């Protein structure tokens, strides 16, 4: 069975729990991977940074979309 976990950040409570679950599955012999949108300093086996798969243009587009989305959310809250 192949298992993939997706997390936004590699730090914080949810990420710690996901990494522990990921490592436990690996020790049980399952094929587990974990993908982070923003990977800081996670040294877990089979962990990947989503942004590494993007070319520079796609990275800029992702930053602009995130910025626009956050600004739109703030405007709606005000």
Shape: elongated
Mean pLDDT: 81
| Count of DSSP H/I helices | 2
N-end to C-end Cα span: 47 Å
> What characterizes the major β-sheet?
3 strands, parallel
How big is the Rg?
15 Å
Secondary-structure content class: alpha/beta
- Beta-strand residue percentage: 15-25%
Find the count of extended strands (DSSP E, 2+ residues): 3
Give helix and strand order, one letter per element, not per position: EHEEH
- With strands numbered from the N-terminus, the spatial order across the biggest sheet is 1-2-3
| Poorly predicted residue ranges | none
Q: Into which percent range does the helicity of residues fall?
A: 40-55%
If you had to describe this structure to a student in words, what would you say it looks like?
- There is one protein chain.
- The chain is 47% helix and 24% strand.
- It is an alpha/beta fold and 78 residues long.
- A three-stranded parallel β-sheet has the order 1-2-3, covered by helices on one side.
- The mean pLDDT is 81.
